[in-house]
Structures are given as C-alpha cells and as structure tokens.
Design brief:
There is one protein chain. The protein has two domains: about 120 residues, Serine Threonine Protein Phosphatase 5, Tetratricopeptide repeat (Alpha Horseshoe), CATH 1.25.40.10; about 150 residues, no CATH class. It is about 45% helix and about 30% strand. It has nine helices and seven strands.
Length: about 350
C-alpha cells in the first residue's frame, strides 16, 4: 500500500495474530524432555582467561538446558488446554528426537513412550548451544579511600557476549508429524570492572543467576508461541489535499475519532469521487483503529467503488487477510480458555 508520505499521517493499530502452531483439542497432556546431544567438538584444555570461557559454556550448557525446560513447563501449566504437563527424565530415545530425519522406528518409540508416560504429545528441546566471546579492555576506575578522597586508577573491563541457540520440536505420535520446529538465537551480554582481569571476573558473580533467568525466559517464550500474540500495524490515512481532510486530521490528532468519522461521512457524498474515495478510505482506517473490522472492510470497498486505486485495493486485501486470521485467533482463544 503506497501513498505519498507528504499527504498522509500514520495511526498505530494493535492487532492480534494467530499462533503459528496449531494444537488440536485432542492433545490434553504434554511431556517435555531434553533431546539435546553432547557437542561432538572436543574442547581443548585452555589456561587462564580462555579457560573461564570454556568453563562458563560448560556450566551454562548443563544448567541452561534445565532452566529452559523449566520455563516451558511453567508456561504450559498456565495453558488451560492442557490437563497435565510432565517433565520426562532419562529416556533412551531422547537424543534421536533431534535427528534431521525421523525414522519409522523412532516414531514407534515415541508412540510407546507417550503411551507409557500417559501423554498425548512430546515437546522436545532438540538444540541448545552456547557460544561465548570474552572481550577485555583497559578502563579508568574511580576509587574512594578511607578519607573519602576520590582517585582515578587504571583497571580492566571484561564483557562476556553469549549467544544461546534454542531449538524446539513438538511431536504428535498419533499423526506422526512435527507440529512445530523452530530454532531461535538470543544474546546475553554481561560486563564487569576490576583492578585486573581476575578481579573483574570475580566481580561478575551475578552472571550465572542472570544466565539462568535468561535461559528460563527462552522456554517461557516458546510456550507463549502457542498463543495468539499482539502486533502493531502502521496505517496511513489522508491528512492533506483538502481543507476538510486537514480538519478531520486535527480531530483525529485530538482523539475525537467519532466526530472525525462524521465529517468524513459528509465528504463521501460530496459528489467528488476522488475526494469521496479518500474519505471512505480514511473511514476504513478509523474503523479498523476502533476494532470494527467489518465496517473497515465496508468502507474500503466503498473507497474502491468511488475510485479504484492501488492504495485502497491493497488495503482491502490486507483487511480480508486480517479477517481470516481473526477467525483463527478466536478459535485459538476458545481452545486456550482463560489464562492465569
């Protein structure tokens, strides 16, 4: 939808997008397990500061995985679609669930596991990878002595930039399909100051707690992926080109949307098809802004009837796509029920 920027102004509209994952109402119980594989890359033994990175990655690979699964567990417990959510520990087939190609034998084992545990689907953490880069630079520090005198000293600042990759899969054993598969990358950055590098590292005592919270939030975020989400749309409307359009723009900016709609309705029947088309288009945008999608479609169609242009035909297509998505959003909300 292209309109000359100089003649328009934008409105921000919050819309609901359906979840990209469809969970059928036959799935009532969920099992969560760790399907990550140990890294095949042998870590060379390192000394000094390089060893700090190795040990940090090793620790986070273990505890971050657990935190991520706990985050998903907590998120799914709040989803009223599911009657039971369990964490599954130490199963033989776990690592085969991260294989690129799932064999018939793997699906058979998944079905057996679901029957044994009593769940309808498996959520697997199929990928968890940690990559940390450590940067060191000289810096100046202000210190206060016992006499409360301030002095500047040279010190070191270290920054640890950690990229955490999460990969999730959802297995439906009855249909033998992956309901979802996604890999996300998130960055955690922490910094610390010290007299020297060792001192700066020791001052970074809160990093591990922060890393666990960060990892847990990635699991929560994946659980929320199963729910409809809010998105902000930017819609342009005509604010110039006619004295009446300028006046209605002033009303819109003052928050007097209904009065602006009345003024625009008068312009629709002015006898000037070009102006009426723009007024109808503006009415469509204002109705969408107020949440009345049906009336927005009505006025977009009216705008096209008066004078068909790319801006109104493209907008109508966008509204019709939103209408289709809204049906799915409402269906998903009905399935989810009220969330705590």
């Amino acid at each position: 939808m292209t309109i000359a920027c100089s003649a328009t102004r934008e409105l921000s509209i919050v819309v609901q997008e359906p979840s990209p994952v469809t969970i059928t109402n036959e799935i009532k119980t969920i099992g969560i397990l760790d399907a990550t594989k140990p890294s095949l890359q042998k870590r060379k033994k390192k000394d000094g500061i390089a060893n700090v990175v190795v040990q940090d990655e090793k620790w986070l690979s273990i505890h971050g995985t657990e935190a991520s699964m706990e985050g998903l567990f907590d998120a799914l417990l709040k989803d009223q679609r599911f009657e039971k959510v369990v964490l599954i520990q130490n199963v033989n087939i776990a690592q085969s669930l991260s294989d690129e190609n799932l064999t018939a034998n793997t699906w058979q084992e998944i079905t057996y596991l679901c029957n044994e545990i009593g769940v309808d689907a498996i959520f697997a953490l199929a990928h968890f990878e940690v990559d940390t880069k450590l940067k060191v630079k000289k810096t100046k520090r202000t210190e206060t002595d016992l006499l409360r005198m301030h002095s500047e000293t040279l010190g070191k600042e270290i920054t640890m930039e950690t990229l955490i990759g999460n990969g999730w899969r959802i297995f439906d054993p009855n249909k033998r399909i992956l309901l979802d598969e996604i890999v996300t990358n998130n960055e955690l950055v922490t910094s610390s100051l010290g007299n020297d590098v060792i001192d700066a590292i020791e001052n970074m005592d809160g990093r591990r707690l922060e890393a666990l919270k960060f990892s847990k939030n990635t699991g929560v975020a994946y659980g929320q992926r199963l729910l409809p989400s809010d998105r902000i749309l930017k819609r342009s409307y005509f604010a110039k080109g006619n004295s009446q359009l300028i006046k209605t723009d002033q009303l819109i900016q003052a928050g007097k949307i209904d009065l602006a709609k009345q003024k625009l309705s008068d312009l629709v029947s002015s006898g000037d098809n070009a102006l009426g088309s723009k007024a109808s288009y503006n009415l469509a945008v204002l109705n969408e802004y107020q949440g009345n999608l049906d009336m927005a479609i009505h006025w977009a169609e009216k705008s096209i009837d008066l004078k068909s242009k790319a801006f109104n035909t493209d907008y109508l297509k966008s509204l019709l796509r939103r209408q289709t998505k809204n049906v799915l959003v409402q269906q998903q909300f009905q399935e989810v029920g009220l969330l705590e």
